[in-house]
Amino acid sequence: MKRLEVSRLMLDMLEYHRGDFHRIGHAQKVLDFVRLIAELEGTGEKARKLLECAAILHDIGIPEALRIHGSSAPPFQEREGERVAGEILAGYDMDEADRRWIREAVGAHHSPEKVEARGIRILFEADWLVNIMEKKLAASPAAAAELRGRYFSSPSGLRVFDILFGPPEP
User: Fold this and answer.
1) Counting C-beta atoms within 10 Å of the first and last residue's C-beta, which end of the chain has fewer, N or C?
2) What is the CATH number of the domain that holds 80?
3) In this predicted model, what pLDDT tens digit does every residue of 7-36 receive, in sequence order?
């Protein structure tokens, strides 16, 4: 059994997505924003580590969702992601409650109604920042305002959103 370290889990994710540079890059970008927002929000060390692990694994269910369901739609991605994350985390010597929290975060990261209950606001916002950039969803000021109001509420997530997608400061 391996001791849970973010770098080891990152290697497991790289191995799982071997050759899929888009998914690897997406996970890395979400991890970077999770780290930034968590630090700005003053998140404690243990919670930050769990959020980082969830960020690394957040889209781990996409290949299985595509294989089993023919779709990577959020419900399939979350269902398969929670299962695959559990399989990967089974190789780590860690507290069972932490293992369950990471699995459940992976299984809820696209579900706004579960974000607050699961304590994954930072992961949710980090993933949205990257999705907005990758899919160019904030192409107009109106689109940016709609996304900001719908998906962001943490002070640090809002600040990062405004820096990336808000109007330039005078």
Assistant:
1) C
2) 1.10.3210.10
3) 999 999 999 999 999 999 999 999 999 999
